[in-house]
């Protein structure tokens, strides 16, 4: 089977590309990705998709300028649009104190995801080959991987697809030479300081020569068997995975985890991260072991932080899993100088405030609307802070807001969604939670302030 038919078969077998969609091909300029762009260009008319290329310059090697020019030249010869990104990866790696390979991968994938959104691509095609699959499985074996690690790279991971997984590197080079297509050679592939390169350049040749000439096929059979078993295991727990809620959380009642084995917990959390949040990497056994301990023994209110801003929270009778987005964190301070209408973006709320007098004063309050005495401008709306206190209606002593949240059974994950209103005399209102005793309306009150908050509908 030639490369074109091989790739088309892989695309069809795994439904990698939808007719009428846009595909972004990640092209470094090397033989694998150059062949990927050429093959997808040949198939685009028959399969009915639009194609663009994306090239990311890591600025690790001087010849990266030449590689960018080669990609742009080849794409131009095919009439294909090219998106180019660049980042000084060595500098960022030093600043973040993260390994060069990890930083390069993270920056490359970030660029590809952003470019896919810009282009409107439904898939980003990567140039990983059958040889890369062999190296990946062996790499993971040496690292002491778990069962899922043995399943290797999948044809689809979120928006990322790998149409070349059933093609060998030498097949692709033969394809390019047969069509007179030039490509560049990445000199860093010969640098055996990198662990992956030592596997490719030293270990695999040694195993083929001294142990098993067909070691590549043996590793691929190991992967196929592990994948088949993994799918069976996933099927046994997939029906127990809750849907993601409108607030972005996945909640599992802890009673449903009673009697669940440690391995089933591993499977469930792994499935939730991949299928509910689209997180496919950077989770290790230590993370799943910590999740198991949280479920089995931790007190309510304890939480774990995983990579990609994943939070696991034990909340009374539930396990809550969510991704903490930067924009969801209430932050800062908003000053309300006087009556009017204001937006409170950190809490996605709008505020309506007015001064009322005499008969317009009402002796009532609700979660979202209050009439309060002895409130003075300017008013501040801010995030809650450690040690915040208030004198609740009907009480004499001050009480911590944190204790009130607990008393009223407000989940920890929700507490930053409550704005705290204060004036020069201190906190006087937390909508939906508490109002300060000093602001109570009495028969002698002649002037009050009406405050009403409502959710901003986007």
Describe the structure.
The strands form 5 sheets. Strands 3-2-1-4-6-5 form a 6-stranded mixed beta sheet, with helices on both faces. Strands 11-15-18-19-20 form a 5-stranded antiparallel beta sheet, with no helix packed on it. A 4-stranded antiparallel beta sheet has the order 7-10-9-8, covered by helices on one side. Helices cover 37% and strands 21% of the residues. The chain has 3 domains: 3-129 and 151-204, HUPs (Rossmann fold, 3-Layer(aba) Sandwich); 245-324, Uridine Diphospho-n-acetylenolpyruvylglucosamine Reductase, domain 3 (2-Layer Sandwich); 328-455, no CATH class. It has helices at residues 3-14, 31-47, 64-78, 89-96, 100-119, 130-143, 169-178, 195-210, 215-238, 262-276, 285-297, 401-407; strands at 22-26, 50-57, 82-86, 123-125, 156-157, 160-161, 250-253, 303-306, 310-315, 318-323, 333-336, 340-344, 349-357, 369-372, 379-382, 389-390, 399-400, 420-423, 426-430, 434-435, 447-455. The radius of gyration is 29 Å and the shape is elongated. It is α+β, with helices and mostly antiparallel strands and 458 residues long.
Number of helices: 12
Q: Number of DSSP strands?
A: 21
Report the end-to-end length measured between terminal Cα atoms: 52 Å
Structural class: alpha+beta
- Biggest sheet details: 6 strands, mixed
Helix fraction, binned, reads 25-40%
Tell me the radius of gyration: 29 Å
